[in-house]
Amino acid sequence: MSTATKTIEDLANTEYKYGFVTDVEQDIVPVGLDEDVVRLISSKKGEPEWLLDWRLKAFRAWLKMTEPHWQNVTYAPIDYQGVSYYAAPSEKKKLNSLDEVDPEIRATFNKLGIPIEEQKLLSNVAVDAVFDSVSVATTFRSKLAELGIIFCSFSEAVKDHPELVRQYLGSVVPHTDNYFAALNSAVFSDGSFVYIPKGTRCPMELSTYFRINAKNTGQFERTLIIADEGSHVSYLEGCTAPMRDENQLHAAVVELVAHADATIKYSTVQNWYPGDKHGKGGIYNFVTKRGICKGNRSKITWTQVETGSAVTWKYPSCILQGDDSVGEFYSVAVTNNFQQADTGTKMIHLGKNTRSTIVSKGISAGKGQNTYRGAVKIGKNAANARNYSQCDSLLIGDRCGAHTFPYLEIKNTTAKVEHEASTSKIGEDQMFYCESRGITKEDAINMIVSGFCKDVFRELPMEFAVEAQKLLGISLEGSVG
Amino acid sequence: MLDVKNLKVRVDDKEILHGITLSVKAGEVHAIMGPNGSGKSTFARALAGHPGYEVTGGQVTYKGRDLLDMDADERAREGVFMAFQYPVEIPGVNNAYFLKAALNAKRKHQGLEELDAMDFMALMKEKAKILDVDEKMLQRSVNEGFSGGEKKRNEIFHMAVLEPSLAVLDETDSGLDIDALRIVSQGVNAMRSPDRAFIVVTHYQRLLNYIVPDFVHVLSDGVLVRSGGRELALELEEKGYSWLETSGAGART
Ligand SMILES: Nc1ncnc2c1ncn2[C@@H]1O[C@H](COP(=O)(O)OP(=O)(O)O)[C@@H](O)[C@H]1O
Ligand SMILES: [Mg+2]
Predict the structure, then answer these.
(1) Per the confidence metrics, is the pTM higher than 0.90?
(2) Hey, which of B8, B10, B11, B56 would you mutate to test ligand 1's pocket, going by the most ligand atoms within 8 Å of its Cβ?
(3) CATH class given for the domain over B2-252
(4) B34 lines ligand 1 (CB under 6 A)
(5) What radius of gyration, in Å, describes the C-alpha atoms of chain B?
(6) Residue, of A472 and B88, whose pLDDT is higher
(7) Are the C-beta atoms of A153 and A127 separated by less than 8 Å?
């Protein structure tokens, strides 16, 4: 092994910085899953009959399904009966201002360097903070309400806007879509709901910070974003989690609906506990994210920076149904130590002149395994569809791996599809070049990796890009040389 | 400034330098010449601290300190600079940003205040003008898509901004046309000062018409076979490197 490789690996041994547990009383449903648990969750949330029925349908479908194992990841079997399916902070009274938020929770956010008050004052961001499964703080709501924009927790949407929820829930990701989506549909706890009315441009970035906290509690978030005709919204999702010994299952579902001339930009920075340097613990992140460009000239952009989780399984996808609609996917996925990621996207072209762009940057360090899996499907009516895909892998050290599986299915001869792929190693020479200018190993790695990810960071809202770059540095600390 | 004693360097289990002894005082310019494969770049990289070049014997003292005891980045912050024979591309990393990070790492090390973006840009503009560096080059990724000549000029530009105490230039002349060579040499000459030393590695004596050395050393097969004044370079040009071998001057002692 070369000296540089060795140093890279030495550097890769930094502990997870955000590993702390907040001590807040939790209201936890007993361990295990059956129809009674589904009913209990629904009744605890005071849900209407139709939603309970939908959950039960999903649960029954889930029982008949088997966990998929085609992904290029391996993990210990999940004991679905050993998980508690619901946790909420026991205090649930409505809060009008941030001052009313549990000080412990606010301290947690501060430790993460995400002071809500500062965001509120400085960055014009409305933050709907999801602590575990239930929202505990919502800001800027009245300002948004003036414009007719709805931004609230999923539970509130069920109460206050049942017709919208009922119309769109499961319309993009059906309750039978896949094993984890079915599970989520049966037991989802909470999440976010956004509705942007016709012709409205959401004046601020909408953001939610998710956090897994209750021990042994699976997280089943559900997010639904609807952009009506000619509207525009940018939504930010960011996560960190406290250090845990047992693997924690996370199976979220995100559905996006863009009507004619609407634009949805969905950005994620994900930094869940990846497990320790021996591969112990860490979050299993099995997420179903899908958007539909329903109307003509609509556009959906997924941008993700995935640095956390022990196992990631995630394919934010776009169904390009409207003519001239556009789907984009920009991704940075980092795997270090024993992390495994199988991520990518699906671009399904149905409408005429639909266009999609895929830019995927995979970074592997330590013994990390990084897989890009992408599908581009061009339907028979999708005349003049265009796709451009670029998948680049960067290896740090020589014990990690990068894998690329692009799938193509073209049923219209006018389609144009381009695919570019590259794999490179952070070379001893690149490192030496930086070092010979006085730049430390850590900074050099950060710089080289950030440079590699530039095309993706460029797509993130400014303040998020800075945060993403920091996370990248943290997750590669001790991995690079 | 620099005292090299009996330096032996190994690469991939093969000894390349068999014992180099060289003393460089502040204010001096030393030229190292020699045929391809004689070990010139190996010497330069060993001085800069490339981790793949293993020092198996000898000592190197720099400003009274053991140079071999420092990592490459520390050497750089202590004022050692090497201009690469083959500068490395770093995609996506802005050249100006890179250089600012480098300069501020050094300033921090020296206990100086870090330069902010405004002051740094002013400094860059000044240096770019002296070296006739296109400002567009500063906003491109480090060396990415640069022509051979642009890369070399960028190296000298880095040197001008970082203001090292000891600069080792590894074949900076190759790949430069006459005009570029003149500009680069002028840049180097402008930086000559009583408290700065240069080691100029070159295959051709051409460069030494522009950067006039105080001493010339000839490296052959990992050994310094001749040392002398400027006239040694001219003699070499006249007689060619083969003269060294046939004259028996290359014998190890
Ligand atoms: N990284 C390396 N790996 C293997 N051999 C090397 C390496 N660098 C230099 N060498 C060998 O060392 C010798 C000297 O090379 P070098 O220092 O580049 O010579 P010069 O710069 O004088 O042309 C050559 O035989 C070359 O093949
Ligand atoms: Mg050379």
Answers:
(1) no
(2) B11
(3) alpha beta
(4) yes
(5) 18
(6) B88
(7) no
